[in-house]
Design a protein that fits this description.
- The protein has a single domain, classed as Winged helix-like DNA-binding domain superfamily/Winged helix DNA-binding domain (Arc Repressor Mutant, subunit A).
- The chain has 102 residues and is α+β, with helices and mostly antiparallel strands.
- Strand 2 and strand 3 form a beta hairpin.
- The protein is built from six helices and three strands; from the N terminus they run αααβααββα.
Length: 102
């Protein structure tokens, strides 16, 4: 088995919480902080930490606005985030293919 694909996995995305955030956002143009929190069952602090990491990596954009006089935070994948997520998924598929018995 070739270990190279394992070594190429993006460590920012590979963490379970961030992988689920990226997966949810890959399936939707944008999601609110509340939708992410409730969908993932994370605490506000935990989600905020993961969002910050993804944002600092350039994978996520965060928009703060108001809706009905209430603060609204929305998240979306950036172009770089979509590309990184696609590369990550492709590497996982490559790992699965090479470890599947013939």
């Amino acid at each position: 088995m070739n270990p190279e694909p394992f070594l190429q996995l993006d460590r920012v995305i590979h963490e379970k919480g961030r992988l689920t955030i990226m997966s949810m956002l890959a399936a939707s143009p944008e999601l609110s902080f509340t939708e992410l929190r409730d969908g993932l069952g994370m605490t506000d602090g935990n989600l905020t930490t993961h969002i910050r990491t993804l944002q600092q990596s350039g994978y996520l954009s965060v928009t703060k606005s108001f809706q009905n006089n209430r603060p609204l935070t929305t998240c979306a994948l950036t172009v770089a985030g979509r590309k990184a997520f696609t590369n990550y998924i492709n590497l996982l598929e490559q790992i699965v293919r090479q470890t599947k018995p013939e």
